[in-house]
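Deliverable D2.4 — example input (structure tokens):
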């Protein structure tokens, strides 16, 4: 039996994608060659890249709206510095919303490039909520936010309306819920939650915001160079890109983002209802900001941890242990986690209650 995988990453993919990948490692497209050994300049791989880039824009509803999708190296962490490199102007300034560990990682890098204003932060409350009612200076070069805080289990439910470019780190909730993605000028996401294995990062950028810094940008860090080379400036990570394409095709077959959002909401509702009902547990994020991707919760009495841990492990659950900065438990419910896995977890939580 395959485990119910609640791990925060990397990476949870649909079973059928793992099966297609296993075949492609041995014999890609009937070529009697592995996906790992064909040239990235071959017609077969170029068509993988083209389809993946197009499908990203199609699924996000951004086709024909001046956006480019890129598959880059370096992880979301490299985007923490590529964003200011490409957007912060000479003597310019940037604005950031500090909602967690990853947001503060992005802020740390931006500070090397120029004035970096943190418009609001929930750090003092161990990032248990998303700050509201903050002002964003209108003369900043951009506003940066993190849509889903993987570690703390909070998620932005709305985004500010601004007249400056909005940049969003969507690493842990991309393709999981419908948003008006055209409100964002630059979206980035490490592949390894809802898309594919670690090793590739998706960047979706509105071309018109680029080329305005007046500064030299090293080629590998310059979005315009990557666009000019159709996301093949250097050898692309072929395997994670192919895996991403298969996952995106799977998502399209499910009915796209709207369809998966319904399932994701059903999974999250089921789990949060039990966390709130069961007297043994409590959630750590404030209710209105709870993430539908990563649910963080603790036992009211740590003394029950040993029994609970034994029960969920025996039920075939893995990856439920919380991040060390929050403690307790974190149930990551990415797109590929089936509803049945949440039913199993909720069953185990009820079983613990019955035992005690
Ligand atoms: N941003 C968010 C929201 C994340 O969850 C993560 C990793 O989990 C990162 C950034 C860092 O991503 P990477 O490891 O690809 O650099």
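Example output (designed residues):
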């Amino acid at each position: 039996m395959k485990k119910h995988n609640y791990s925060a990453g990397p990476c949870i993919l649909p079973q059928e994608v793992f099966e297609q990948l296993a075949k492609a490692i041995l014999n890609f497209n009937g070529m009697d060659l592995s996906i790992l050994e064909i040239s990235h300049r071959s017609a077969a791989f170029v068509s993988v890249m083209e389809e993946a880039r197009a499908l990203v824009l199609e699924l996000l509803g951004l086709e024909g709206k001046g956006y480019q999708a890129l598959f880059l190296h370096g992880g979301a962490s490299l985007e923490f510095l590529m964003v200011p490199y490409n957007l912060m102007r000479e003597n310019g300034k940037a604005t950031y919303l500090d909602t967690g560990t990853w947001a503060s990682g992005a802020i740390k890098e931006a500070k090397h490039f120029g004035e970096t204003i943190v418009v609001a932060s929930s750090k003092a409350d161990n990032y248990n909520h998303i700050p509201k009612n903050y002002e964003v200076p209108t003369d900043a070069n951009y506003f940066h936010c993190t849509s889903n805080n993987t570690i703390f289990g909070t998620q932005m439910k709305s985004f500010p309306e601004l007249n400056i470019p909005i940049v969003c780190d969507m690493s842990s909730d991309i393709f999981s819920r419908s948003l008006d993605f055209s409100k964002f000028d630059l979206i980035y996401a490490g592949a390894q939650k809802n898309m594919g294995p670690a090793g590739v990062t998706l960047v979706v950028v509105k071309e018109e915001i680029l080329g305005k810094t007046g500064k030299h940008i090293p080629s590998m860090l310059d979005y315009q160079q990557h666009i000019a080379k159709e996301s093949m400036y250097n050898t692309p990570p072929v395997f994670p890109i192919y895996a991403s394409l298969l996952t995106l095709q799977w998502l399209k077959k499910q009915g796209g983002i709207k369809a998966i959002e319904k399932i994701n909401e059903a999974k999250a509702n089921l789990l949060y209802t039990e966390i709130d009902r069961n007297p043994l547990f409590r959630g750590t994020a404030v209710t209105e900001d709870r993430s539908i991707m990563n649910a963080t919760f603790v036992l009211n009495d740590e003394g029950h941890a040993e029994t609970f841990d034994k029960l969920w492990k025996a039920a075939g659950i893995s990856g439920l242990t919380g991040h060390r900065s929050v403690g307790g438990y974190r149930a990551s419910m990415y797109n590929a986690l089936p509803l049945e896995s949440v039913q199993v977890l909720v069953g185990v939580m009820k079983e613990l209650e019955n035992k005690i």
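Residues 256-277 form the longest helix (22 residues).
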